[in-house]
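--- STAGE predict ---
source: upstream dedup step, 1 unique chain passed
mode: sequence only
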Amino acid sequence: MLETVVTMLNKILPYVAMPAGLIFLFLVVLHAALMMGKKPALKMVGAGILVAYALEEFGVHTGIIYGRYYFTSMMGPKLDVIPVALVCLWILLLYLAYTITNLILDGSPVQTNFSHSRIIFGAIMGALVVTTIDLNADPFAAENGWWVWQDGGAYFGVPYHNFVGWFFVAFVSYIVHGYQLRREELPNLTEAKKSTKILSAAPLAIYAVAALAFLLINFNGQLGLITVYALGIPLLFASWKWFHWYKGTQD
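--- STAGE serialize ---
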């Protein structure tokens, strides 16, 4: 059953990857604007796109950041050598991990502490959360030919170099976001409408769905086990912090 679903996904992916990516990007902007205001949300997403695209271009052309690889036609239309869908999905991953990091460190879905140490430590934690997602995503994508590692790799055909690259790009993105938002006046989410507070948990729900999907995409049981620990622990901790935060806003 799962193999049939994956086969169907690979057949339609070149046609739906970019539209789906753009929809996800729009939803991220919409949600971020609701959580922190339109201007901060647009600045954060815009900077994320620029950082992601610039470093991905550099990485593909030089092999320095991630290793030697290239994208096939599976992920749809490209800007030069980078699929549009990839940049959109990267922003989604950054946003999901950003929410989880905020909950773990600040006990809030939005960042409330913008000290230098919090920005740096938050960038480290956020980059780690993003990279753990790729422990599952990259083997699946490589196995299905979405992109090709020219030199192979020890981790399900993926080089360890790639995960260092993921961490680096996410870390740079979060440093930029932290100092961008430090200069902004963000609304107090605890005073928002009840529906807005409930919607603040949407990134957790999407992260949970992704974790469940990776549990099903199971290479001889190994990726499923990786999912339980790499994605499950941050999800459980962040979810507990969210419920504690939400309950506190109702008192």
